[in-house]
Amino acid sequence: MKKNQVIVLALILLSSVSSVQAVSDENVSQRRREKSAEIQEIRTERKEERQEKREEVKENIQERRSEIAENHANRLEKRFTAYYTRLSNIITRFKARLDALKAEGKTVTSIETELVVATSKLESAKSKGLEAVSAFKAIDPTTIADQKSALMAARDSANAARKLFEEAHTSLKSALKSLKSL
Fold first, then answer.
1. Shortest CA distance to 83 belongs to which of 22, 168, 15, 182?
2. Does residue 123 come out as left (phi exceeding 0), alpha (psi in the -120 to 50 range) or beta?
3. Whole-angstrom Cα distance, residue 71 to residue 109?
4. Exposed e or buried b for every residue in 23-32, given b needs 16+ CB within 10 A?
5. Inter-CA distances, 155 with 87, 103, 127, 148, 150, Å
6. pLDDT for 66-105, tens place per residue?
7. Which residues in the chain land under pLDDT 70?
8. How far apart are CA 93 and CA 177, in angstroms?
9. Alpha carbon separation from 27 to 22, 36, 54, 107 (Å, rounded)
10. pLDDT at 1
């Protein structure tokens, strides 16, 4: 009888284990599907977050480019205005000095021609500088990649204006040397 009881107990245990195993297989596959769905959700959320972050970074870059372009145009304008006022004040004082020398009866025609050349270079430098500043202000920073040629033209115009200011300054220095030799 003990043998029968042991066999019956073993059969009961085996049948319950197989039913538990069948239930657990269903639970495992269901949990796998749930986990897979959760992982997919997390991936899509992270992908959206990365996309939003990229767009935010692009906007920040555009804002910085806009600020840089505006600051550059303002610096050029201030610089060229300072050059022009400084050199025009020097020319004004120079003319007053030449008038005083003329009143004394000295010949200053060669110095006057150098001064006229310096004045014309200064005026052309001023106009070229204004052209460069307006070209830099006209460039839209959002489409800066599309406007490379306009950007290069504005830069070349600014360099040309700077060189004209330098030439005007050089002409003034040579006129001053001529004046000192009188």
1. 168
2. alpha
3. 44
4. eeeeeeeeee
5. 23, 46, 15, 10, 9
6. 788 788 889 999 999 999 999 999 999 999 999 999 999 8
7. 1-3, 6, 8-11, 13-25, 141-142, 144-146
8. 15
9. 9, 14, 40, 112
10. 64
The answer to whether residues 175 and 121 touch, using CB atoms and an 8 Å cutoff, is no
**CA–CA distance, 25 with 31 (Å, rounded to integer):** 10
Rounded Cα distance, 16 and 7, in Å:
14
Classify 172 as helix, strand or coil. Answer: helix
Q: How many CA atoms lie within 13 A of 17 on its CB side?
A: 6
Cβ atoms of 37 and 104 closer than 8 Å: no
Q: H-helix or E-strand containing 79?
A: helix 2-103
- Among the listed residues 111, 114, 153, 161, the one whose alpha carbon sits nearest the alpha carbon of residue 136: 153
Supply the mean pLDDT for the chain. 86
Contact criterion met (CB below 8 Å) for 65 and 144 = yes
- Greatest Cα pair distance, the chain, in angstroms, is 152
Q: Which two tokens stand for residue 65?
A: 């480019």
pLDDT at 141: 67
Distance CA 92, CA 94 (A): 5
CB count within 10 Å of CB 168 equals 26
- Is the Cβ–Cβ distance between 181 and 106 less than 8 Å? no
